[in-house]
Amino acid sequence: MRVKLIAGLVIIFMGLCFACSNGLSESEVVRLIQQHSTPGPQGEPGPIGEKGDTGERGPQGEPGPIGEKGDTGERGPQGEPGPIGEKGDTGERGPQGEPGPIGERGDTGQQGERGERGEQGEQGLQGEKGERGEPGPQGPKGDKGDRGEPGKAGPVSEPTVVLTPVASPSPAAINPAERDRAALVAFYNATGGDSWNLSRHNWLSDLPLDHWHGVTTDADGRVVKLLLYGVGLNGKIPPELGSLTELTDLSMYPGIRGTIPPELGNLVSLSYLDLSGNVLIGEIPPEMGNLRQLEFLDLSQNKLKGEIPEELTDLWRLEYLYLYSSHSRDNFTGCIPFKLKNVIESDLDILELPFCEPPDTQPHL
Fold this sequence. Notes:
The chain is low in regular secondary structure and about 375 residues long. About 15% of the residues lie in helices and about 10% in strands. It is built from 3 helices and 12 strands, in the order αααββββββββββββ. Strands 1-2-3-5-7-10-12 form a 7-stranded mixed beta sheet, with no helix packed on it. A 3-stranded parallel beta sheet has the order 4-6-8, with no helix packed on it. Strands 9-11 form a two-stranded parallel ribbon. A hairpin with a 5-residue loop joins β1 and β2 (about 225-230). α1 runs antiparallel to α2. The radius of gyration is 64 Å and the shape is rod-shaped. About 15% of the residues are buried.
């Protein structure tokens, strides 16, 4: 055991000498010794020494005071803004040029004539009344006290049965509201209602008439107003329109052509009539004088011609009258009825026609 220990020390000593002569570091010397030395038996571990007391930590020094922040310099006052320059005057707008004349509208083809109504069948003959039988001969007068028997009466003829045909109901017996509906249907068909430029107008529907576009009714369902503007009318005024006897306001344009039907004279409740801006032709019918409630009449901008009827002077409520048309300014002839001077507002002076002589108020001798 001792021999091995001594041999080991010798090897260590020789290694140190070799290291010193060759300039090796201590770590390299230790590595060589470990490679060539024979490890001895491991000795028993010695007892672990007691852990020494840890020294107390000295007190930490207090931090020094933070220096005070210097004062910030005050901001200088902002300069006042300079005055805003005044706005220059706007130049005046030049006058607008007058619009050019409107071109005349081409004539629309006339509607075909209405077929004639068939003849009514003749009424059947009434049966003849039977003859009355003659009385029988009187019996001979009996002796005094006894009364003779009366003669027998002749045979009585049988009565003849007379068949009387049942008459169809007259137009007056029809419900007035239904008659108004029929008149509007006739107007719709006569003015191209299927081509009206309305998305929803309810015409020809089963709804009440006051749901139809442009139609107003009273509490009884009678039509009192018919106002149609710019809906695409194209046709003539049908005579059935004259059955709207409760109508107070009638106005429709443009697109109405043809003549003014005399049946419009049946609109005895009418107070406002505007047919301006259409293509009406022919003369003003004298039946217009029946519109005794009329206060406003506008037939301007059409192609009417002929004399102004004297019957218009019967419109004693009339306050506004317009007949002039730039399309046919020279079509009216004759003179203007004298009493139309009493109208509050009119365009009669533009017609360049004289007024008729006032009617003779002197009694005839």
